[in-house]
Write a structure and sequence with these properties.
- This protein is mainly α.
- The protein contains 4 helices and no strands.
- The relative contact order is 0.13.
């Protein structure tokens, strides 16, 4: 199974409404893929964005789960996820600017 904590997997499965553990390995892999997607976009889970981050990761995992037979097709991402991803991305970029500003003014 991909390195996903039992708590994160359980929370994702609750969001997805999946019972049992027959597909835990698949779901853990999809969850890891969703987190890697966000990391590639410069988005990381922080105390300030944990709820929104989890919603996006769970939503992406569900999307990947439901569309696993459509890999490589033009299937659209769920509409509600894109605005949240964009907001998380902007927040991450703003934090980089703020950190840079603090470093420049520490002199």
């Amino acid at each position: 199974m991909a390195s996903v904590s039992a708590d994160r997997l359980a929370a994702c499965k609750a969001y997805m409404r999946v019972d049992g553990d027959a597909e835990d390995t698949l779901i853990a892999s999809l969850l890891t893929g969703a987190e890697e997607y966000l990391t590639g976009a410069g988005i990381y889970r922080t105390a300030d964005n944990a709820a929104r981050y989890d919603i996006v990761v769970h939503g992406l995992t569900l999307y990947y789960y439901d569309h696993r037979d459509a890999v490589g097709t033009e299937a659209e991402m769920p509409r509600g996820l894109r605005p949240v991803i964009n907001q998380l991305k902007l927040d991450a970029e703003a934090q980089v600017v703020a950190d840079s500003y603090e470093e420049d003014n520490d002199d």
